């Protein structure tokens, strides 16, 4: 049993209105020092047996991320 | 300028229908070995000046996470 973490974030050139809304909210709440926020997704997968790095990349690119607008990173976590 | 990462995940006892939908989709796509998926959120904050750990915990707990149903972790990333 292995744990895999896939982080999916909007590409740098893609506007992130959710993140900008958080920046605005933090400013009003007294945290003006936060100059930028990007919001993405985090997936934690429990895998039985073993999947190759290529299979994990395929899962992330085809199912978890929209690679037109998002970048992803795949990390194996020692359980 | 510091980068802070806040990971927000549904608590273990909270059902995660998005994650279960992904498990089903992966099974149909030929990855039956993925037995569980949890979907959460990842926030990347750019901070000017310095915020204390207490302030970061407050931002995560009050703004980024819903602590009734979600757990969060705050990580300082060396830029």
TrEMBL record, chains A, B:
<dbReference type="GO" id="GO:0005524">
    <property type="term" value="F:ATP binding"/>
</dbReference>
<comment type="pathway">
    <text>Purine metabolism; IMP biosynthesis via de novo pathway; 5-amino-1-(5-phospho-D-ribosyl)imidazole from N(2)-formyl-N(1)-(5-phospho-D-ribosyl)glycinamide: step 1/2.</text>
</comment>
<dbReference type="InterPro" id="IPR036604">
    <property type="entry name" value="PurS-like_sf"/>
</dbReference>
<comment type="function">
    <text>Part of the phosphoribosylformylglycinamidine synthase complex involved in the purines biosynthetic pathway. Catalyzes the ATP-dependent conversion of formylglycinamide ribonucleotide (FGAR) and glutamine to yield formylglycinamidine ribonucleotide (FGAM) and glutamate. The FGAM synthase complex is composed of three subunits. PurQ produces an ammonia molecule by converting glutamine to glutamate. PurL transfers the ammonia molecule to FGAR to form FGAM in an ATP-dependent manner.</text>
</comment>
<comment type="similarity">
    <text>Belongs to the PurS family.</text>
</comment>
<dbReference type="GO" id="GO:0006189">
    <property type="term" value="P:'de novo' IMP biosynthetic process"/>
</dbReference>
<dbReference type="GO" id="GO:0005737">
    <property type="term" value="C:cytoplasm"/>
</dbReference>
<dbReference type="Pfam" id="PF02700">
    <property type="entry name" value="PurS"/>
</dbReference>
<keyword id="KW-0547">Nucleotide-binding</keyword>
<keyword id="KW-0436">Ligase</keyword>
<keyword id="KW-0963">Cytoplasm</keyword>
<keyword id="KW-0067">ATP-binding</keyword>
<keyword id="KW-0658">Purine biosynthesis</keyword>
<dbReference type="GO" id="GO:0004642">
    <property type="term" value="F:phosphoribosylformylglycinamidine synthase activity"/>
</dbReference>
<protein>
    <recommendedName>
        <fullName>Phosphoribosylformylglycinamidine synthase subunit PurS</fullName>
        <ecNumber>6.3.5.3</ecNumber>
    </recommendedName>
</protein>
<comment type="subunit">
    <text>Part of the FGAM synthase complex composed of 1 PurL, 1 PurQ and 2 PurS subunits.</text>
</comment>
<dbReference type="InterPro" id="IPR003850">
    <property type="entry name" value="PurS"/>
</dbReference>
